[in-house]
Amino acid sequence: MKQRDLHIRGLSKVFETSEGPVHAVRDVNLEISGDEFFSLLGPSGCGKTTTLRMIAGLETVTAGTIDFAGRNLARLASAERNLGMVFQSYALFPHMSVFENAAYGLRLRKVGQRQLADRVHQLLDALGLEGLHMRYPSDLSGGQQQRVSIARALAYDPDMFLLDEPLANLDAKLRVQMREEIRRIQKDLGVLALYVTHDQEEAMSVSDRIGVFKLGRLMQVASPTEVYRHPASLFVADFIGKINFFPGDVLNADRAGASVRLRSGGMIEVGRFERLDADERIEFGIDRDSVVAVRPEHIRLTPTSGEDAAGLTGTVRRILFLGSIVRYFVACEDATKEVMVETADPPADVTEGERVRLDVRREHALCFRS
Ligand SMILES: Nc1ncnc2c1ncn2[C@@H]1O[C@H](COP(=O)(O)OP(=O)(O)O)[C@@H](O)[C@H]1O
Ligand SMILES: [Mg+2]
To answer: What pLDDT is attached to residue 1?
Structure first.
């Protein structure tokens, strides 16, 4: 294990409640390197905050171990872990100035006056808060408050930076700006960042790697590109970006791929297989042994008379002009839902109500197989 790596093994959390036990986190295993920007991503209630709080020492661990820099964190009190935390609520002290809020951790650690002032001024300036040092949180905008909470978390050079949905209360434009800033600070400091979010675009844009959670379980750990291109389950495929599902039966499978026969009898060529989970098959309404998953930007539409119907065909229901792209919804009996197609280069001859052929290149057809 390297110097500042985080190593989580068999981590579980069960809350005992009046309605019985709640399994918030189930057997999570993770290795994160000391300079990585790592996001915990998943829908609300899937255990992200609980995982982060166990690492921070704010929540007890039901089972498993958390080692950081070769030390078992369970043996350290929360204050000894030297972690910088940023929450969705900012949690600034309302009766303290911006300066005092940012200086809080340094005062706790009894850092000398001179050094403290230098450090706080430097950080506040770096975060674009110069001139606001004497203000109180109530006189700041949401974005400024958030930056103060980041300054407070960074002031004492934490060994690890933990952020729990830190941008959730900001408007869309500021969110994009702040996430870039957080990423830049993290890379400048070279400190491990664990970033909790339910926003897949946010996770994709800032992370080195992403851990995708579902109901307390870690479903996949990979780079943003990898989870998008090679999702390991239907849940991940569906949660990250948009995707269309075509149930079918695998024929003539060999090392190079296979043909999949769809409901209508039409065929689709696939080049890659993942395992199809039995529960997910039911959850996603897959009425065959297998399912072919295709991203909207990987389907090409061409008008068809209906006679060349060997492959996939459908009827265009709706065309949405979205500026940089055009989105089509196509009714297709082979798919579990209306098929979504996106292109930056819309064919002029495809209109609403038109019969179309849907073409997919083999390398863009992911096959999940029982
Ligand atoms: N203190 C608690 N007592 C009981 N159940 C809790 C507590 N904290 C969280 N939970 C439950 O644990 C699950 C995971 O919660 P959480 O970690 O907050 O999810 P997320 O941050 O992904 O939205 C949820 O079902 C939630 O209701
Ligand atoms: Mg949460």
So the answer is: 44
